[in-house]
Structure to design on (605 residues):
C-alpha cells in the first residue's frame, strides 16, 4: 500500500510538471481523455467482466452533444459537458437495460449492434454535421473567469477532472457496491442465489461507465475543438478495449498505461506508416490475446503477488 | 402505373429483390457464424473480413491471374477457407479453454489486420467487378425487370444454405458435428477425431463467408471495408434468430434482408438501422432470440 501511495505521488508530480517538460499539452490532454475513457470502460470489463463492444457510442454522442450545444447554442463549458454526460447516461440506461438481459458473448454482440445504431443516427442527423463532423468548438470558460482557451490552463482542468474520475472509480470498486460487482465477475449464478439483483447491479455499473465515457468524450471534444464520426465508430470501441486489455483489465492503473501506449503509438505510427497502422493495432490485439492476457500492470502485480507468496 | 406510398411498383419490387439478395448473404454469413459458434464457442468477428477477402480473391483472380467468375466461385472459398484453417490451428485452438470473450477479441484483431493489409495494398476506394457474361441482362416479368445476376445470387445462396442444412441435419458427418457440439469429450471417446472436426468446421464456415463475398462482388463495390459493417448486421441477425438453430439463421437472414429492402422504399433514412431496432425489440420481448433454446 505504501508503495502505491509513493507511486501515486510520483505520478501526480509528473502529471503536474509535464507541460513544463517540453511535452505538447494538447497531446497530454488527449492522453488523459483516452485514459479516462479506458478507466470508465475498465469498470465494466475489469470488475464485472462485461465486454461492451460499443463504448464509442457514449464517448462520441456526448462529444457531439457538448460540441453542438456550445457551438450552435452558445452554452457554457460546464453546462455543455453536463448535458453531454446526461445524454451518454440516458443512452447507457437504454442500451444497458436491453443488453444486460443477455450475458457474455451475446452482451458483447448486442452492445456492438446498438452502438452501430447510434453511429448511423450520428451519420444521418443534422446536428452532427454528418461526414464533416463538428468543427471549431470553443472551450469557453469555467466559473465565469478561468479562460480555457490557453492550452496549459485547459490541461490542468482536464487533469483535475481525470484525477476526480480516477478517485471515484477507486472508491466505487472498493465500496460494497464494487464488492458485489466483483462477486458477479467471479460467479454470477452464485451472486444471484445469494439474493443479489444481479441485473440491476450490472445496469448501474453500465450506466456509470457510459456516463464517465461520455465525460471523457466531451472533454476530448473541447480539447481538440472538433468531433468526427470516428469518435462514435466501431474502431474507437475497439481501441478502448485494446487499451484496457494491454494495460491490464481489472487493475486501476492498467487502463491508464494502455491508453498511453495506444495513443502514443497511433500518434507516431500514423505519420510513419499511414493506413498500415490498423495492421499494427490488430497485431497487438492478437499478441495481447494470445500471450499477454494480464496486460502490463496485471503482469507486474501478478509477479509481485507470486514473489510475496513464495516468501 | 400503380404505386404504393407514392413509390411506383417496379421500384418497390426492385428494392425487395435487392433486399432478398442482401438477405441471402446475411443467411450465408449467419449460417457460418452459427455453425462455428456451435462447435467452437467462438464468435467469429473476422467473418466480415473473410467475406471481404472472398470478394478480393475474385477481383485479384480476374485482374491479375485471368481467372473468371466461375473459377473464383470455387477457388476463392477454398483459398480463404485454407487461411481460416491456418488461423484456427495457429491461434484459435489455444483459446478454447478460456473465456469465450478472448476468441471474439482475437478474431477482431485478425479482422483489423486483414482490412488494414487490403487497404494498404488496394486503397480504400471500391472496385467494380463485372457481371459474368452468362448472367448479364434481365428477364421482363411484366411487372418488373428481374436482373439475372441478382436472381442467380439468391438462387446460389439458397442452394448452398440448403446443402449445408442437409449436411448438418441429415448426414452422418453432420450427426458427428452435432454430437460434438453437445459434448465434445464424449464424442472423442467414441474415437472421432474432434480436433480435425473443429478445424474443418471453422474452415468450412469461413469458406461460406468467402463464397458470399464472391457472389456479392458483382452486386456491391469490392472494398476493404465492405465486411466491417456487414458483420455487425450479421451479429444482429444472429442475436435475433438465436444461435442454436441452422434453419433459424437462414430464415432470419432472408427475412431481415427483405425487411431492410422494404424499409428502403418506405423510409430510406431508417434502412441502415432497421435491423438493429428489430434486434432491440426482439430482445425486449424474447431475450433468447426467436429460435433460441437456452
Amino acid at each position: 500500500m505504501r508503495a502505491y501511495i509513493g507511486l501515486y505521488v510520483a505520478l501526480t508530480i509528473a502529471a503536474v510538471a509535464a507541460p513544463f517538460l517540453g511535452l505538447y499539452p494538447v497531446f497530454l490532454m488527449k492522453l488523459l481523455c483516452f485514459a479516462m475513457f479506458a478507466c470508465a470502460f475498465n469498470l465494466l470489463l475489469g470488475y464485472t467482466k462485461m465486454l461492451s463492444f460499443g463504448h464509442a457510442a457514449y464517448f462520441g454522442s456526448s462529444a457531439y452533444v457538448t460540441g453542438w450545444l456550445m457551438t450552435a447554442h452558445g452554452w457554457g463549458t460546464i453546462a455543455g459537458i453536463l448535458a453531454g454526460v446526461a445524454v451518454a447516461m440516458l443512452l447507457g440506461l437504454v442500451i444497458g437495460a436491453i443488453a444486460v438481459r443477455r450475458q457474455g458473448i451475446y452482451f458483447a454482440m448486442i452492445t456492438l449492434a446498438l452502438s452501430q445504431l447510434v453511429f448511423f443516427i450520428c451519420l444521418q442527423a443534422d446536428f452532427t454535421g454528418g461526414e464533416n463532423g463538428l468543427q471549431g468548438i470553443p472551450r469557453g470558460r469555467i466559473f465565469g473567469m478561468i479562460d480555457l482557451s490557453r492550452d496549459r490552463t485547459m490541461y490542468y482542468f482536464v487533469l483535475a477532472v481525470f484525477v476526480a474520475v480516477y478517485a471515484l472509480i477507486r472508491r466505487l470498486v472498493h465500496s460494497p457496491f464494487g464488492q458485489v460487482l466483483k462477486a458477479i465477475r467471479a460467479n454470477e449464478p452464485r451472486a444471484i442465489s445469494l439474493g443479489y439483483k444481479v441485473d440491476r447491479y450490472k445496469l448501474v455499473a453500465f450506466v456509470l461507465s457510459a456516463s464517465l465515457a461520455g465525460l471523457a468524450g466531451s472533454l476530448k471534444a473541447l480539447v481538440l475543438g472538433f468531433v468526427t464520426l470516428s469518435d462514435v465508430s466501431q474502431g474507437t470501441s475497439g481501441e478502448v478495449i485494446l487499451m484496457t486489455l494491454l494495460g491490464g483489465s481489472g487493475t486501476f492503473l492498467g487502463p491508464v498505461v494502455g491508453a498511453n501506449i495506444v495513443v502514443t503509438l497511433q500518434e507516431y505510427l500514423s505519420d510513419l506508416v499511414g493506413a498500415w497502422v490498423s495492421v499494427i493495432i490488430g497485431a497487438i490485439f492478437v499478441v495481447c490475446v494470445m500471450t499477454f492476457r494480464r496486460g502490463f500492470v496485471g503482469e507486474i502485480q501478478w509477479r509481485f503477488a507470486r514473489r510475496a507468496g513464495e516468501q | 402505373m400503380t404505386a404504393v406510398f407514392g413509390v411506383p411498383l417496379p421500384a418497390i419490387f426492385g428494392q425487395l429483390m435487392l433486399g432478398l439478395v442482401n438477405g441471402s448473404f446475411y443467411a450465408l454469413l449467419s449460417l457460418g457464424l452459427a455453425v462455428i459458434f456451435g462447435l467452437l464457442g467462438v464468435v467469429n468477428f473476422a467473418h466480415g473480413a473473410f467475406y471481404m477477402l472472398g470478394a478480393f480473391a475474385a477481383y485479384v483472380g480476374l485482374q491479375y491471374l485471368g481467372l473468371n467468375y466461375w473459377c473464383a466461385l470455387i477457388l476463392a472459398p477454398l483459398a480463404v477457407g485454407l487461411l481460416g484453417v491456418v488461423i484456427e490451428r495457429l491461434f484459435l485452438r489455444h483459446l478454447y479453454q478460456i473465456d469465450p470473450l478472448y476468441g471474439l477479441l482475437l478474431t477482431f484483431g485478425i479482422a483489423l489486420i486483414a482490412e488494414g493489409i487490403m487497404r494498404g495494398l488496394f486503397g480504400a476506394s471500391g472496385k467494380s467487378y463485372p457481371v459474368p457474361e452468362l448472367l448479364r441482362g434481365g428477364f421482363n416479368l411484366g411487372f418488373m425487370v428481374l436482373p439475372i445476376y441478382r436472381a442467380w445470387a439468391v438462387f446460389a445462396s439458397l442452394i448452398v444454405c440448403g446443402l449445408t442444412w442437409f449436411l448438418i441435419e441429415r448426414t452422418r458427418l453432420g450427426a458427428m458435428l452435432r454430437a460434438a457440439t453437445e459434448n465434445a469429450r464424449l464424442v472423442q471417446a467414441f474415437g472421432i477425431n474432434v480436433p480435425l472436426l473443429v478445424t474443418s468446421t471453422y474452415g468450412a464456415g469461413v469458406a461460406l463467408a468467402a463464397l458470399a463475398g464472391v457472389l456479392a462482388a458483382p452486386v456491391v463495390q469490392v472494398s476493404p471495408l465492405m465486411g466491417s459493417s456487414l458483420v455487425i448486421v450479421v451479429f444482429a441477425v444472429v442475436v435475433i434468430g438465436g444461435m442454436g438453430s441452422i434453419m433459424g439463421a437462414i430464415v432470419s437472414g432472408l427475412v431481415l434482408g427483405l425487411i431492410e429492402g422494404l424499409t428502403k422504399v418506405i423510409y430510406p433514412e431508417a434502412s441502415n438501422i432497421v435491423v438493429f431496432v428489430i434486434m432491440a425489440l426482439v430482445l425486449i420481448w424474447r431475450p433468447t432470440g426467436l429460435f433460441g433454446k437456452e
